[in-house]
Structure formats: structure tokens, C-alpha cells
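Long-time lurker. I teach an intro course on protein structure, and each term I like to show students one example going from raw sequence to a predicted 3D structure in C-alpha cell notation. This year I'd like something fresh instead of my usual example. Would anyone be willing to generate the C-alpha cells for the chain below so I can use it in lecture? Attribution to the forum is fine with me.
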Amino acid sequence: MDTPASSMRPDLFTTEFLAATTTPARRIPLEHERALRTAAATASSGSRRDVSAVSVVLPLGLDDVDGLKDVVGGIADEFGLLASVRPLFGACAVRFSRRESGFDDQSSVSSPARTTAAQH
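-- Reply from a regular --
Happy to contribute to a lecture. Here you go:
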């Protein structure tokens, strides 16, 4: 039996409304995620003398930068790396570096959990 909207709990109705009307975050193409994972694996493997940082440039529009930052933050956490995303004209440059390399960039990307915790 359907319940009229007026008899629903307001918080439940609001939650359902927001879920139905909110646009989900855009995902980056799978081949971009593969390239990012390869770059992160390269940066984290081997000795520090061999590789301390890896950069990759991906063709991506500005409307995809937030989704890219989310993916990059997750990958950086997974591999224990620092990461930065730098939007370019029609592309984005992503840099993964080892934490002990001394790289400290204000445009670093972190996972959504760490970003949220830092804001509170």
C-alpha cells in the first residue's frame, strides 16, 4: 500500500528527494584509471634512487577534475603516495611522489575521508 507523501516522515522524504535529484559524481574513463594506477605503482616500487615521482598527463575537461581528484586521492592512499592534480588546457597533469621525497605541494590531493576530516 502506497503512503501519501504528506504522511511520510519529513527527514525520510528529504533524503529520498535528494537522492533522486542529486547528480552523481562523474567517473573518469577506465583507461585513465589504469594509467593512474600504473603511474602510482611505478612511483611506489623500486628504490628511491630509481624513481621518486611519476607524472602522467590525461586528456580531460575541466568538468571532470573533481572526479579525477577523487580517484587520484584514493589511488594515492592505496599506494601510500602524495599526489597533485594540475588542470591544463584540455588535460590534467597528475603527479605521484613518495612521501619521504620531501614533496609538499599545496595542490596535493587527498582522499575524500581525509579532506572531510581536515575541514572539521
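Some talking points for your students: The CA atoms of residues 85 and 95 lie 7 Å apart. The radius of gyration is 19 Å.
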